[in-house]
Structures are given as C-alpha cells and as structure tokens.
User: Which sequence fits this backbone?
C-alpha cells in the first residue's frame, strides 16, 4: 500500500524519533527527530532530513558539515511511532566528531568513554591474528 | 565518573527514548522509553526495564511474555537525551511475534513487509555454500 507520512504517529510536537543506523556495519550512529515534512523529504531526496528541535527547522543532515546521510532503507515500527533509517554515513555522524553519538558507556556504575562500536562491525578490519579474508564470507551473507 | 540517572535529559513527561539493539547481530529490535527509575533498575538488575506510556508503569521487558532482554551494554548519546541499550534478546522483541518491531519498510513509495533484518547479521547462519566456521572469526573480533 502507498505510504503516507501523515499515517505515522507523531508526538504532541508533531515529531517522531528516528534511529540512524549504518547500513554496512549495523552501528547505531544517532537518534534524531522527524516531522511529516522531514519524512517526506528524506524519502523524496534520499538525503536523510530531520527536524531540529533546537533550531525549530528542517535539518538536512550534513548540509553544513558535509557529513551527509544517504538513505538506504526506511523502516517504521509495529505501532508506527518510531523510525529506523538505515543509511550510508559520510564522515562522523556526531557533531563532536565521533563516528557515533553513543560513545559513552555506563559500566560498573561509572561513565566511561567507549569509542568502539557497541555492536559487531562485520565490515571492520579484523584484529591482529585474524586473517582479513575471514571477514568477507560473513559479509557475503549480510544485507550490508 | 559515577553515573547518575538524574543527569540524563528527559522530556516533559520524564522519559528518554531507548534504542534496543541485539548484541550479537547489531539488529535494531525496538524503540521504547525509560524514566529515571527504569534506567536505574535496568543497570541494577541487568533486566532491561522500560516505562510503558500506555500503562503508565514500569515494564520489565518479557516479565509476562518471557521474551526478556538481558543488558549487555548501556550507552548514552553526546547530549544525554537518547539511550542505546545493547542486549541479549530471548524470543521475539515485538509484541506481534516478529523478531524486530521494524518489519515494515517503505520502498518506492509503498509500505512493504520486510521481515529480514535491515542490517548485517554477522552472527546469523551463513547461507548455503558458506562454511559455518567462517562466522566465528568475524564474531571473535566484535563486541558480540
């Protein structure tokens, strides 16, 4: 059936959370918000577009920083109130320069810097001792 | 530094979005909400606990369905207003029985059922023709 952005369930401010995920690695890069127009523009242009709550305006990710997000797959959840935007990220996703905004972990009750991805990265180079060729069959069976 | 759930940035309703991600595959399973107590209980018990907006109460995921979520890694984002909960999922995460709540994709302007994960699954069984042993080195270098 045809998709209509108006059929999503937005909050009182007209926004819906969007999880940005790297299409190749599965890494969760950031969580931002979209309104119906941002959803429509993301689908129409393939350039992931959010609504900036701080600036109160549409925000084409990377338009100023160059760190753009090219849409690979747009998904909605079972109750239509959350989005999963699978994308190809140019440069870091985080305004701090980190690849992902989720670089802080809570371990043993303390906040620790955790720059490594929280999830497997099939596309990442294998650590010393593992042959690089071993990573390829694993990716061959993936959606990456 | 010690982590205090009160230092997260909650919305006007005292809630913060939490992205649930499978620790082994990187698949985004669901997005739900936590309040400060849900954050504290998730960290204290290792059982991922949300705040149900529909029921207006704490929700230990899987307590009734058995489809529990064991905490593997708890992360917060750069501006402390979103959470990434990396976990081990027992059974399906979605109340529909689907593994992930994000089983609907928008492709060419239409909603389509997309039961396959939107992202790579390094831990998933390899397709025919790939030897199972090839998946192991890929996982050995991951956080999964």
Assistant:
């Amino acid at each position: 059936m045809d998709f209509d952005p108006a059929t999503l369930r937005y909050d009182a401010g007209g926004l819906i959370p969007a999880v940005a995920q790297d299409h190749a690695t599965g890494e969760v890069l950031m969580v931002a918000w979209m309104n119906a127009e941002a959803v429509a523009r993301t689908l129409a242009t393939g350039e992931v577009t959010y609504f900036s709550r701080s600036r109160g305006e549409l925000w084409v990710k990377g338009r100023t920083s160059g760190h753009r997000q090219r849409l690979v797959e747009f998904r909605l959840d079972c109750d239509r109130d959350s989005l999963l935007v699978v994308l190809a990220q140019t440069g870091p996703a985080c305004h701090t320069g980190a690849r992902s905004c989720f670089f802080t972990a809570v371990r043993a009750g303390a906040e620790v810097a955790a720059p490594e991805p929280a999830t497997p990265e099939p596309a990442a180079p294998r650590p010393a001792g593992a042959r690089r060729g071993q990573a390829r069959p694993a990716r061959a069976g993936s959606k990456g």
The mean pLDDT of chain B is 87. Chain B touches chain A through 64 residues (CB under 8 Å). The domain at 5-90 of chain B is CATH 3.10.20.810 (Ubiquitin-like (UB roll)).
